[in-house]
Task: structure prediction
Amino acid sequence: MATINRKITLAARPVGFPKVSDFDLVYSPLPLPAAGAVLVRSVYLSLDPHMRRGMNAAESDTPSVAIGAIMPGRGVAFVVSSDDPAFQAGDAVVGMFGWQELAVVQGRQLRKLDLHLAPLSTALGVLGMPGLTAFFGLLDVCNPRPGETVMVSGAAGAVGALVGQIAKIRGCRVVGSAGSEAKISWLLDELGFDAAFNYKTVGDLGGELEVGCPDGIDVYFDTVGGAITDAVLQQLQAKARVSVCGQASQDNLMEPEKGLRWLDQLVIKQAKLQGFLVSGYVERFPEGLAQLAGWLDQGKLKYWESITQGIESAPQAFIGMLRGINHGKQLVQLSDP
Amino acid sequence: MATINRKITLAARPVGFPKVSDFDLVYSPLPLPAAGAVLVRSVYLSLDPHMRRGMNAAESDTPSVAIGAIMPGRGVAFVVSSDDPAFQAGDAVVGMFGWQELAVVQGRQLRKLDLHLAPLSTALGVLGMPGLTAFFGLLDVCNPRPGETVMVSGAAGAVGALVGQIAKIRGCRVVGSAGSEAKISWLLDELGFDAAFNYKTVGDLGGELEVGCPDGIDVYFDTVGGAITDAVLQQLQAKARVSVCGQASQDNLMEPEKGLRWLDQLVIKQAKLQGFLVSGYVERFPEGLAQLAGWLDQGKLKYWESITQGIESAPQAFIGMLRGINHGKQLVQLSDP
Result:
């Protein structure tokens, strides 16, 4: 264990896409646990699209990070020492540890993990916030029925890939968009999507959607927004449901983008569109985790992780994720599992 | 009773706002009732914004009218003669009679009206489709709670004026936008709106909304779309509900308009947006009509009608309504009530 803690702080507010120079790598002394607190050594740090909004000064769903403050983030860790009787050295835990190697936290902020149940990293993916986001955002918001067509944007992302697989479990036709040929192959060959296309290279999004969704779109799970969403909303079926999870295509724009006005389509199709945050479902997390763990155990959910090594790799990994370089869940490994 | 029927047919598909020359006034012989049919003499014809969409060749919620065909429309009428034992000469009825003075219809397409209950014309307004649209579109889609702020665009229209009053009955703060100073005075002084502004003359829609809705907007009922909707969606409260009834500002555009992308706001606010058609509530019409009639009887709902005289006035009255000249419900009187 290092006796010096290393962490990443916010150096400057990004203009457009973040740059590595918007972050600082800071060395600081080993934190001294307060009475009742728990010292943990991080194993994996989760990188998530919403963190980009936290780098702005403006209010959003993610609290604005102060310049010079540590970047907040969820991670899995092992307890090093604990002044809280509920935790012992060696316990595996998940919590908000920030972009750093060591963290001092209160026990009430931690959830213990069972290492026999699933690999540690899944607590940040399929059995964590991405899994719960896909689960409630698809099933609770949209309630897809067998035979319906479900379209997913950002389908190869941590959330999107799970949305598509859960929709397949429900018996739906599943169509996805993603940004590379490798991702499209993965969606079609590994995850069982019925159709998928590379939104960066197809000339005509609408035409591609007509081919993939010959009966129209009953459910749309949107993590991307922008042009793909404009196109999807022209092809809704009557009584369609749209779950809006994020708008990744808009988060790094230097000027707000204008787009199609499509509210007339929602009227004609009597369609519902719902923005949601997974935090709105906190009381139902145990229900979601139990179902996701069951599917994982039955081999019905596959997942993919992109893992970089060392806290110093976090800024570049984060930027790469915002640009869509990763497959599935983006993690930074900070110590041995 | 005229022995010659006069009707309005579609002469040409409008480009942008309709012109009078897009319609023809046609004289035709008295229709001969088929066996089992009912001959009616129209008293009032209802003019409705969705009729504009029916003038286009493209599919929408309103069937496309063929060139040369009669303009469809709802009206109230008296039965002249009936070969259906359920109807007698002199009965007051509501149904789809089209833009014409006389019509031959089947009895199953008619609903009898009680002349003692409310004036005949209310069957086309507060106790008709506009009333039901306001009732279900506000209460079922948005479920406003006492103390919440409800914003209505097109607030002086047939539907909007009822939405605002129903929201007041529910104990909400009600704010509206409309397009003339006379309409604003009517909303504030007659209908009891808490705030209202002329969207055509205020420089800063967002600033005006902040003044009218100091606690943000919990419920938005949209009949207009475009710039006012862009501005409203920036000021939603958490868990806001948006009911999209129509997009009148977009119906007469010659080129599709681009606008703000605001889906990020729906995510952050966990807001729901629902497009709806009143036809989706047909099973619940009796419930809605009973409640609306009760409120009308108790003096809790006021309405306003703009009435022009004679079938030949229908095209100009329709164009005026699309341009927002009318207050409240636009009717054409075709014979004596």
Q: What stands out?
A: Chain A has two domains: 4-125+303-333, 129-279. Chain A has a mean pLDDT of 94. The longest strand of chain A covers residues 37-46. The domain at 4-125+303-333 of chain A is CATH 3.90.180.10 (Quinone Oxidoreductase; Chain A, domain 1).
